[in-house]
Amino acid sequence: MIENSTPLTTEQLKVQGMHCASCALVIQKILKKEVGVENVEVNYANEKAKIVFDSKKISLDELNSKIETFGYKLVEGAKNLSNQDDKNSQEIDLENMWKKVLFSLPITVGVFAVMMGQIFAKELVMEIIDEKTMNYVFFVLATATLIGIGKPFLMGVWNFIRFQVANMDTLIGIGTGTAFIYSTLITSSPAIKNFLGQSSSTYFDVAIVVIGFITFGKYLELKSKHKTGEAIEKLINLQAKVAIVERINNETKIKEEIEIKLEEVVIGDIIVIKPGGKIPVDGKVVDGYSSVDESMITGESIPVDKKIGDLVVGGTVNKQGVLRVEATKIGQETLLAHIIKMVEDAQGTKAPIQKLADQISEVFVPTVLVIAFLSLGCWLVIGTKTLGFSQALSYGLISFTGILVIACPCALGLATPTAIIVGTGKGAQNGILIKDADSLEKLHKVTTIVTDKTGTITKGTPELVDIFMVEAPKDGKSFSLDEKKLIQLAASLEKNSEHPLAQAIVERAKALNINLLTATNFEIIEGKGIVGVLENKRYQVGSQRLFENYLQKEELSKIKNLTLEGKTPVILGELQGEDKFILGIFAISDTLKDGIKETIQKAHKMGIKVIMLTGDNENTANYIAKQASIDLVIAGVLPHEKVAKIIELQNMGEIVAMIGDGINDSPALAQADIGMAMATGTDVAIEAASITLLRGDFSKVIKAIKLSKQTMKTIKQNLFWAFFYNVVGIPLAAGLLYPIWGVMLNPMFAGLAMAFSSVSVISNSLRLKLAKI
């Protein structure tokens, strides 16, 4: 018996309450344990969780209840980036954090100044305020700081005690809490102070300054993180808020222009777009002529002329004339909505390079806790023998607090996702839509670009340039059809095909006002052509492969000459029983897209080989390849053979990027390491690809590779500094320099370093915005 499987639900939701990369891992761990949850990916950089689950076994409310105990919350309303909830939430978080900074920063700066005074001018400070009074003042300020803005850190300790779940807040909470409790005991109880053999020196200042610096660092981190997602915000802001539509007044029965909300537009509405106005939805021009600025969607700065019958995209700007546009796609079906969704999904994915950072982050906090306690133990055991218990305890506490404060899992957790967010956003702004982080990472390793010909490196709008009539036998005699009849028969079959060569014949028929016939028993022969019945006779139209063994010497010679001139032959024939008779040969010519040769030369300079893989004949393919400086041509290939060729290249160790635009390219796009689809192509090809190039611009291939290289360079820099910072910082905090120079790292400076480590990683990622691709 076959068990019916329930379709899984995928939700991408905002997560509230995350303070560090460890929080993301904690949430992942908790949710993955639940029955019915297939997969969970939590991204600290964009504060979102992607959850794949069986809604019949567990609901979102139940999942939410599991993490609310730990101070986190899933927000359903944030899953739709077309609304303002996400932006408003970010602004509220930033405003709340700024209030904390305004509370803590004056106290922090004042206490820090006093501490610096104690280091460099102790006698002067003691003249102004004695140590006992200072301790009481610092106790009040430290209490206010811990209660006022240190609550997340204290909750981190409480959750650790209750659930044995630790994050960065736990480390800060234990470190500053230890400093506060020790100092309170020393200040309030002379007996304890004497028993421990300690002076009146306290660490209230450490608790105040560490929390103050980290809060300020968190504010800068939050602000910087929001900047990484500006690309999404800019895309959302492209959407028009209202539309002017033509509607019939129910009372006067007269057509009027009225302004309505974008949400009220329906398919079929006639929208009026005036000069300077935003086009609200995708549609077709039904009246008017103008130029449209599509730069915000495609990255191309030159406005595109639009006339009756042309398609326009929502979010673009009408520059000159008035356009009347019929709405064809609205809401989440528009190109802009798809772009926003694609970028959002990509920014929520994880690159393979992040796995190492995740693995380290997963054990980071427990490991740091162990190191901190071991360091304290070493100071008390070994230090007591050489320094005495009093001094060893003092240094042990400084070491313990310093290690907990300086350790920063956030820098590790932010290293990859912030760069991915900025990289995918920059790609979208340049008309390069990247489906996931995995694709962005793989792209920089590409060694071979495999490209289709028609519509990919050629303009894809070939023209019928010649027709050759061929005499065929009929009732023992030979006859030939005239040009119009040949076009009628061929176009009547080809009108059912999406191939550009087929469309060239159909367009000629339209230009000559030829009435097309209705084909019956219609059949597409993959990679070869079409067969169908017209006027009770069977005809077929297609490539030379469809007529193998039936072409005469003269016809083969004609076909060869056409292909040597770069023209593609399309043959029309009639089937009579088992025989095929050639009726005519159509010569179709296509031209290279602008800038193709220069783009391929740039690929060569990057050490990348370019191969043309096409179903066209070898002579035509070679003619085009020579013009474009392509390295290798593999012609006459059927769709399934394209996949085999890709596999063959991969088996040779090549990292293959496949570029195509047709349905027949979809299997090869899916097989390649990176599939790149032209957005002028079919929806199927775009779905199969991992990267989409808007406007079918081949030059964006090189831009995409450069973007990948820049992004990976940034990620590696971020990971290096994140690892380097922790590897160097923790030993320094533990007291590594003491045996050499007698110097201990003050936990205050450890807190300052920790606060700015995350900011430095995010700032480095933001530099990607300025990178030239």
Task: Explain this structure.
The chain is elongated. Helix 3 packs antiparallel against helix 5, helix 7 (168-188) packs across helix 8 (190-196) and helix 14 (389-406) runs antiparallel to helix 25 (700-734). A seven-stranded mixed sheet has the order 14-28-27-26-15-24-25, with helices on both faces. A six-stranded antiparallel sheet has the order 16-23-22-21-20-19. The two termini are 56 Å apart. Mean pLDDT is 85; it is low at 78-83. Helix 21 (618-628) links the parallel strand 24 (609-613) and strand 25. It is built from 27 helices and 28 strands. It is α+β, with helices and mostly antiparallel strands and 773 residues long. The relative contact order is 0.10.
